Amino acid sequence: MHERVRGDASERDRHARFIVSRILMGAAALVLAPIYLALRGPASVQEYVAFLFLASPLLAGVTLARTGRLTLAHTISAAGFAGLIVCLANASGGLASAATIWLVAVPLEALVTGSRRAAVSATIVATIAVIVLAVLDAMGAPLHTIPWPATLSAPIFALFAIAHAGSLVLAVSRARDANADALRRRDARDRSLLQVIDDLVVWHDAHGHVLSASAAAMKLVGAPSTALEDRGLFSRVHVQDRPAYLKALSDAAAGSAPVTAQFRLHYGDALAGEAGRVVWTEMRAYRVETADDRAKVVSILRDVTAQKNHECDLERARAEAERAGAVKARFLATVSHELRTPLNAIIGFSEILSTDTMAGVGPEQRRGYARIIHDSGHHLLEVVNSLLDMSQIETGNFEFAPAPFDVAPLVEGCIDLMRLKADAAGVRLGFTVEPGMPELVADRRACRQILINLVSNAVKFTPSGGRVHVAVRRRAGMMAIVVSDTGIGVPEAALAKLGDPFFQVHAAYDRPHEGTGLGLSVVRGLVGLHGGALAIESAPGEGMTVTVELPLFGRCARSGDDGARASAPIPITVRSRGRRSAAAEEVAQAVGVPHAVVAAPNEDADNEELKRSA
Which contiguous run of DSSP H or E holds residue 286? Predict the structure, then answer.
């Protein structure tokens, strides 16, 4: 066979059948020719020509083997067959001979075993043969050399023609059965393949409607394949992803390249109580051409939920790394500023005190320089303590030792500690404790740190003439510590960032207030260690209210939960508010409780002012 058909199994089989059949027919003619001549005796020229036509299939087979052109080989074979029929018909009655009916089998055989082009060429050959017979009849050329009566030759030729046609019909039937078996085997193989793969294969029409789907629908979307037909698959696509789904099908139907899209599918059946679960899928759509001209697009859907989750984890990790980088940058910028300023003061004034030029400086000025050095040292100590507290909380090394204690003395001591700073800033400081408050089971040192940080921040950001109030009350198994001030407040855009380490509303070096931005971060961590909650309410120019809720009877006991632990920071509830809303109500309730105020200097005047303001 020719090399052009060696890679195509079906075409190779067609060529092999043609070559074998033609070789057998030509060989049979060559074997029968001597026997016929021995029995017949001297033969006529017409009989020799007939034997040449009988042997012509050999030429057709050799031509196909050499050129690989099946149409040419069929034309040669049809010409030999038609020439034999012309010889037989010319010898037995011309155009009216019964052998002429065999010419019908010439194009039929080419169509059955060849192609449409071979059938066309064979039809042309048969037509030429009829014309030749008609010309021979017109010329009076019929020889009538076969000594058979017409009543005998006609049935014989007709029987041979019927037998030949029947063999062609059987060949067609066998080919059709073979094709049907091949189709069945292919369909069975395709079904087996679709059953074992996890991907869902869907056939769509020109409008994107589903014609059929594979059995993987049950695994991918939790529904049978019939539930996806027509608009069933479209109805399961997430509403926000439907435009991308339809665009992918449209692009695939209009172009030749595959189209890929990712969208979400709703899993399960709402009636069965499985609705709500969403599966991320990746669809790859291809344009196809089918015999029924219905299916226009074939799509393959794959579950990529795990991949999407991994991508989300990577994105969260990237965001966390960026946040850590930003925190580090803020840490370096803030801490370097907070450390450099007092260190410069300490170094500068200590050098002044140590030089000989101080001989003419009086004791009062010396004490002023020493006070500056003392204050700068205390500021450095506060910065270092804040950094250490934050580090211990984040790493889980904070010494957390809960024990029952009375809150009122703790609040009073913190207020007394901060009163000097408040008086220096011109801020009125007051507090109320709800009567009958039970003991709080918590770490006393941590609670003191929480209260000092909150009151210190409130005093720092409250202008002269303002007020800061601390109220302690009981709320459904929790102790609420509410610190309200009438300070500068916080813009709504910055509320969500409060509590982040080193975050400051005014981060410039020339900001009006010093600090590392760790006060609320430390409070957040300490409240989280207690299993409490933290809420902040503020508005620009209208002060701030910070509410800390701690469990009255301590954090829920668990095995190995006696000490501090490193964990994710608790969320902070933040909200912007209008003038004198929640904070004013809190203050009014605090000062309106009889016998709840623990006496402190100037507290009565503060309470009267708070009552009038509320």
Answer: strand 278-287
